[in-house]
């Protein structure tokens, strides 16, 4: 929000400067020949540009080569260049640079992560220009104003210019208004300026959540210590046991099958026939270059991969999929989709844009389209566990695990009508790693889609186990990944920030680590179930003696 505000104000200032200079150049203070020359070159610029754009569109529609130029097109290009050179001499390069910088600032994934900014208290806040009431110096008096409704709680940061103080005042005001004690919700010890305008609004404190570590996870020849933020006893210990079994059997291996974030707007036409015409246009491979050109303008990392369309009556759902570098990429793909919709509006003026998201994406909801087509990173992770390790570490046998996986994860999930839930507890591990590394916890819904397979190999002596996860949605830049604790957890994995040499590599590796941790968790829980140890272990590690003592009294 704050980035948009800065961009908007910067664009307004640029526009004011531009139009102000235009008025000066066109004013009567300038000599008459200069005024005529200005008008001539301005008209030449507009006419040349309009002519070339129309010719370009005609060539695309007729599949004519763009590099073959007619004499009229050559003249138009020379006219365009001449007018640009002349106008630049008046308007200056500064105006052009300001436009470029404003577009770069708008792209959230193009922030310079090499020099991490640590803003001072509420450094991102713009103080309101009009203050209707002078605030008192005492916190107690300001609390009274908030409680009485004379000062909106959401305006405290901008009015005070101090994020920490705003949180303390809001915390106390809420305690007085509700009559509830908030002593267990800490306020101090957190950098609230780091969340302003991007992570959380109207903060009143922060929730303390323990972070455990499982590992080392031997994955693709390297070892990783996996951070897991959870309040479920046994989860980290169980995953750690799975990591041990994998390491003692030679490690796990992973492969990323696909990498593309999706967004699916829904548009409506007067008739289904017209909707079908746009569907045919969007899915025609001959038009992909034009559509991708419009889409890719949103970011230097966004690269359109494909468009999949589906109809419901006269409503058309277009599922755009694109690469997003090391960002999870929802904002990036949404901006690209908006560019395409604006472009299509010229050729389909009767198109009504209902929503930038039509649920065909599908985001934060279980959906077959994600299970089949994938969303984010599609990963397969596998390992062959030695029979001796299964007996010694996991306390069970190969036949018992194979039978249980078939009856529970496959047949049992089918009986339940599961969608992407052919596993024991993939979401447990996904949620814990997501929270620890600053991912969007709500995307655990589709990111936990997983099918666990177990087969006896090597004449029944060993176990081949694999997890296939088609829609892991993660990033190492943007969102909660920039917070101090979450950034530290990413740094533990060696994945903090973007990979400047190979954009997208860090996020793909993070998805592989998530799948590897799920593999370890599946292996350990299934072994506990096969050996009848689940209830015993949870009674030991997942019960609070404090709660039991209280209940006994």
Write up what this structure looks like.
The chain has helices spanning 2-26, 32-61, 71-91, 93-106, 139-148, 156-160, 163-178, 235-247, 272-283, 288-295, 330-347, 368-373, 387-392, 398-415, 426-437, 444-447, 484-492, 505-530, 534-541, 545-552, and strands at 211-219, 222-229, 253-263, 266-268, 303-312, 315-323, 352-355, 376-385, 421-422, 450-457, 462-472. The chain has 553 residues and is α+β, with helices and mostly antiparallel strands. Helix 14 (398-415) packs across helix 18 and helix 15 runs antiparallel to helix 18. 35% of the residues are buried. Belongs to the HMG-CoA reductase family. It catalyses: (R)-mevalonate + 2 NADP(+) + CoA = (3S)-3-hydroxy-3-methylglutaryl-CoA + 2 NADPH + 2 H(+).
């Amino acid at each position: 929000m704050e980035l948009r505000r800065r961009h908007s104000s910067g664009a307004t200032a640029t526009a004011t400067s531009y139009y102000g200079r235009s008025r000066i150049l066109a004013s009567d203070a300038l000599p008459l020949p200069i005024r005529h020359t200005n008008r001539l070159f301005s008209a030449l610029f507009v006419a040349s540009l309009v002519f070339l754009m129309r010719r370009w569109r005609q060539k695309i529609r007729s599949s004519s080569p763009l590099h073959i130029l007619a004499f009229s097109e050559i003249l138009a290009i020379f006219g365009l260049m001449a007018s640009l050179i002349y106008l630049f001499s008046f308007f200056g390069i500064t105006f052009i640079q300001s436009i470029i910088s404003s577009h770069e600032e708008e792209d959230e994934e193009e922030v310079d992560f090499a020099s991490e900014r640590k803003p001072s208290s509420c450094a991102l806040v713009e103080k309101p220009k009009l203050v209707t009431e002078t605030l008192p110096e005492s916190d107690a008096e300001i609390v009274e104003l908030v409680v009485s409704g004379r000062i909106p709680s959401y305006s405290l940061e901008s009015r005070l210019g101090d994020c920490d103080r705003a949180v303390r005042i809001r915390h106390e005001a809420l305690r007085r208004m509700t009559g509830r004690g908030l002593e267990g919700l800490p306020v101090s010890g957190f950098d609230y300026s780091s969340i302003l305008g991007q992570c959380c609004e109207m903060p009143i404190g922060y929730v303390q959540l323990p972070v455990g570590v499982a590992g080392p996870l031997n994955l693709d020849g390297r070892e990783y210590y996996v951070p897991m933020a959870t309040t479920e006893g046994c989860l980290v210990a169980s995953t750690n046991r799975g990591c041990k079994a994998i390491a003692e059997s030679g490690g796990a291996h992973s492969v990323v099958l696909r990498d593309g974030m999706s967004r699916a707007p829904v548009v409506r036409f007067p008739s289904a026939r017209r909707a079908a015409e746009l569907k045919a246009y969007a899915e025609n491979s001959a038009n992909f270059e034009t559509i991708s050109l419009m889409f890719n303008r949103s970011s230097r990392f966004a690269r359109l991969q494909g468009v999949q369309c589906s109809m419901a009556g006269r409503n058309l759902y277009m599922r755009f999929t694109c690469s997003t570098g090391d960002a999870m990429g929802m904002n990036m793909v949404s901006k690209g989709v908006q560019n395409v919709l604006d472009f299509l509006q010229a050729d389909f003026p009767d198109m009504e844009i209902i929503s930038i998201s039509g649920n065909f994406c599908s985001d934060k909801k279980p959906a077959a389209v994600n299970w089949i087509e994938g969303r984010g990173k599609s990963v397969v992770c596998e390992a062959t566990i030695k029979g001796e390790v299964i007996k010694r570490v996991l306390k069970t046998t190969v036949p018992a695990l194979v039978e249980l996986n078939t009856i529970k994860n496959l047949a049992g999930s089918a009986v339940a009508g599961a969608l992407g839930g052919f596993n024991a507890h993939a979401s447990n591990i996904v949620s814990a790693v997501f929270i620890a590394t600053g991912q969007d916890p709500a995307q655990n819904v589709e990111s936990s889609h997983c099918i666990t397979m177990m087969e006896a190999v090597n004449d029944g002596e060993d176990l081949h186990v694999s997890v296939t996860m088609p829609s892991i949605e993660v990033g190492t830049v943007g969102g909660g990944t920039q917070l101090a604790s979450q950034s530290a957890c990413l740094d533990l994995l060696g994945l903090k920030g973007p990979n400047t040499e190979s954009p997208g590599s860090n996020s793909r590796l993070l998805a592989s680590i998530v799948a590897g941790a799920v593999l370890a968790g599946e292996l350990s829980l299934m072994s506990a179930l096969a050996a009848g140890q689940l209830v015993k272990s949870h009674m030991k590690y997942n019960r609070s003696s404090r709660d039991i003592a209280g209940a006994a009294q």
